[in-house]
Every structure is written in structure tokens, then in C-alpha cells.
## 1
Amino acid sequence: MKPLLTLHYRSLLAVVVIANLVLLLNLGAGDIKPWNAIVWLDIAGEGGAALLSLIWIGLILNSRPTGRVTRLLVAGLTAIFLAYWQDVLDEFIQLPAAITWDHWLESGAMPLGMILLTLGIYHWHREQQAINRQLLKRERIFREHRSFDPLTPLSGAHYLREQLTLELQHPQQPVSLIMIDLHCFDHSRRLLGNADSDRLLRELSELLVLNLRQQDLLCRYAGDRFAVVLPATERTVADKLGQELKQAADSFAFKTRRGETHAVSVHIGLAVSHDDDAQTLIERANRDLARTLPHRHQAA
């Protein structure tokens, strides 16, 4: 199995167990139909729909991390699968007329699954909108054939300096800069290994993007340090946004490929422009960040 799929083995196991319980329940309550009573066209249609539901579940689990959106999508598709699965079993097993739970399973699981799937798609749409807003900010990089950071879906320190320089050309509007440092990342890399620690940086960057405003810009400054440009933002607002980013990151329960939870914590530094150039503003934000770090180190 691919790495992401292994993170969801409990979800996969739950689908298999529930499907088998429904099968055993039908076998225990009914009798196998004679061969000439089986309608193979119905089996092909209902069985094909059930199989496609399982395939969609596998594709989602193999392409997304754990979270609310993934849970809603998988729960919805699982309910739809169970409705079709019961339809398929009805073609092979004759249940007594007194039994009604099969009708509830067929008729109840389908609308429930559609509701859960719709909720999942809605939140997935919101999630993609936030990511797309960040991508639109980097459209100029595509036009100028500039490269992204090789690890995360973000721009690097060079683009950060360029955008700060552009924003600082309007001195009548304050520009705030937040530096975000991942706590003890060297220790995390030794503990998690290169593959999981790289994925941690990628998923953390996506989490930070989702908690930014449309006009804000997130860049990877260096190593485990990120920078957020807040145009036309005063200190009080910038400080509130910084605390929200810290709270979001500190609440992030990163899942390793082994399914273990790795706690995440960040430190933040803030600087607001006072007739600064880009480099001076970056240095002031780094100095403010250094005051919160255990060993008071600064990035280059």
C-alpha cells in the first residue's frame, strides 16, 4: 500500500467489517435463492455501483490526510456502499417477509450517505478555495518562470523579499511580517525520519494557508521557518492573526505513516513596518522571534 493509504487502515478495516456483518446477518436470517430466480442484470448494476463506491473510498483515502473532510467523504461513500451492498445481497438471499431491517438499510443508508457526502464535498470546496487563493497570489511566478520551494507548495525567501519591497512602496499603509518557527524540528526529523518530517512541513504549510486572509502571503523563509506578509495590517490585527496561526499549528495532530500522532508547536515573531526596507523588516521579525525561542537562535 502507498503511505497515505496506510494511515487510514482503521477506516478500511471498518468498511470490511461492516460489509461482512451485513453479509452474515443476511445469511443468518434468510435462504439462498434458487439459481433461476437470480436477476443478473440487477446484480451487475447494483454490484457495479457498490464496487465503484469502494474504489472512490480507496482513492480518497490514498490522496488525503486524516481530518473532517476525509471523514465526511468516507462516511458518506460507506453508507452509499452499504445501501448498494444490501441490494446485491437481496438478489441472492430471500429474507422472510416479517423482516424489515433490510428495507431500512437500503432506503435509509442511501440518503444519509448522500447528505454526508454533500457535506464533505462542501467543506472540500471551501478548503480548495482557500488553497486556490494562495495559488493566485503566486501567478506572477508562473509568468516569470520562477521556481517554488522544492519541498512545500510555497514561494521562497527571494520572492518574500520581492513582495515585501512592493508592499513597502506604499508607506501610508502599514505592512506587518510574521515569522513562524517550528519548535524543535531537528529533533522531530531525527524522530520521524526524512519522509515524515518533509510531509510535516508540507501539511503544516497547507494548514497555515487555510488560516490566512485572501490578501496575505505565506512563504517558506528557510528550513523550518515560514514568513507571512500581511499587507495594510496594523500591529493589533497582525498580533491577533499571529496568535490564530499559532493556535491552529499547535492544535495540529500530525499523523505519521505508522499511524502515530506527533504533536506540533510553533513560535512566532512579529514586526510592523516603520519606514523599513524589506531586509530590515525581516531582520526585526527574526529578532522578535528569537526572543521566544528556547535557544534564541536566528535564521540566516
Note: The chain has a mean pLDDT of 84.
## 2
Amino acid sequence: MLNRLKQILAPIRYWKELPLRPMGDRPATTTAPASKIPPIVIQTWEDRLFGKSHLREMEHFLRT
């Protein structure tokens, strides 16, 4: 029953994310000493378009 409800609501959640928005590249803001792990996160996707809430969470992650 719960899985069926999730299946019904999934398209509605998707439509709330539209329009998809682009996210650009961002340069590293600091450098790390050679003995430490660099503060760089590299993520890849097929394109640069994300839903509103996904983009908001990624931007929050980049700010902190």
C-alpha cells in the first residue's frame, strides 16, 4: 500500500522540481599542503540541469 502511494506521488514530486536549472563550475577557493587531501570535490553528471531542491542542497553543500 505504501509503495503504491509512493509510485503515485513520484510524478507529482518531479513536476514540483521544474523548471530544471543549470549549475556552473566553481573554482577551488583554497589550496591544501602537499601532505593533506586537497579540499576539492569532483562530481560528474550527464548535464548541468537540476531540480530546484537538488540544486539548493548542492549550493548549500558548496557554501559550507
Note: The beta strands are 21-22, 49-50.
## 3
Amino acid sequence: MGYLLLAGAIAAEVGATTAMKYSDGFSRLWPSLLTVAGYVVSFALLAQTLRTVSIGTAYAIWAGVGTAAIATIGILFLGEGLTAARAAGIALIIVGVVVLNLGGAH
């Protein structure tokens, strides 16, 4: 159940960060409200995750997968370029999360 909550926390964080892009510096009401709501939901779900998943593992997955997802959204939907360095960075984040989970983190 902890990892399901963590997936929800990641989805909420990714949605909030994407909405922030459209908030125009918090000058547009609805994207700004979505940003705030998304982060509130994300942190609430992350807090619930910590009941069953260690903080180091949960935070590493939350931050790493969220970062990789936002970078991918930027490339696919927001016109950000894909460079070799960016692709390598995303790949390293994904590999790091996998290694953390397979390496027996508690």
C-alpha cells in the first residue's frame, strides 16, 4: 500500500509542477490553485507513505521519479530540447531509483 500512496504522491507532484508552468508566475488563478492543491495532496500522500516505507527510499523515489517525469514532460510537450546530457541525466535518475530498490534499502 505504501508504494501505491507513493505513486499517487508522485502523480500529484508532477501535476502540480506542470500546472506551475502554466500559472505564469502565479498570476493565473486556476493553474495557481492546481499547483497549490497538487502539492498539498502530494505531501499528504508522501506523509502517509512514510508509515510503511523508509524515508530515504520514499524520498529518493518521489524526487527521482518526479524529476525524470517532469523532464520528460518538458521534452515531449513543452518544447524543451533533448540533449545527450539531459537523456543521460534522466537515465541515471531511473537507474538510481532501480538500484536503490533492488539494493535492499530499508
Note: Residues 74 and 80 are 5 Å apart (CA to CA).
## 4
Amino acid sequence: MRIYKILAASEWAAARAAGRFEGSAVDARDGFIHFSTAAQAQETARRHFAGQTGLVVLAVDARRLGGALKWEPSRGGDLFPHLHGALACELVEAVADAPLNADGIPQLGDLAP
């Protein structure tokens, strides 16, 4: 199963240079790296990234993250994948731009489950 992380392209560039992604400011505040499933990702983009340009979406095979990946309830009760630890860049299977649509919502394209 693939899971997805939306972040600024500049954050991804810094992570690639370091070899790992330690998380965004929101991730650091919450103590884990937020991911979404394919079914959750577009709503995550709408709620948390509207109006933000220069975004990318990372695709990661959840099985490769091992025990550091926890499925935890959100405020609405849905289970979301949270990575407790850094994301090694070599585990990222794909990176795609997330341009804004006419309503200012990042478009993630077709995401594989």
C-alpha cells in the first residue's frame, strides 16, 4: 500500500541533500511525520495546503517503513499513517508536483492505493 506526504519542494530538496526527511514544522510539533492514504490525500491537500504553491507529493510503500509507521486516529476518527522517525529518502518511490487548481487547491493527480 502506498502512502503520501505533501510538502514544499524546498523541504524535499533539503531532505534529499541530507538523505532523510525529518518532517515539516507541523510534523515536528506533533512528534511524527503526517502521511495520508490515496483516499485521504486530496482532502488533506484541501484542508491543510490550500493556496500554497511549490508543493510536491511523495509516494512511499507503507510496508517498507516497518514498526515506525503507526495508524492513529485523527480528530475526526479516521486512521491516518504517522511515521515516528525520519523518512529515508531512498524509500520514496515517486515525487510529483502538486500545482494549484483554479480554486487554489493542490492537485495530486491519480494516486495509487
Note: The chain has one domain: 2-97.
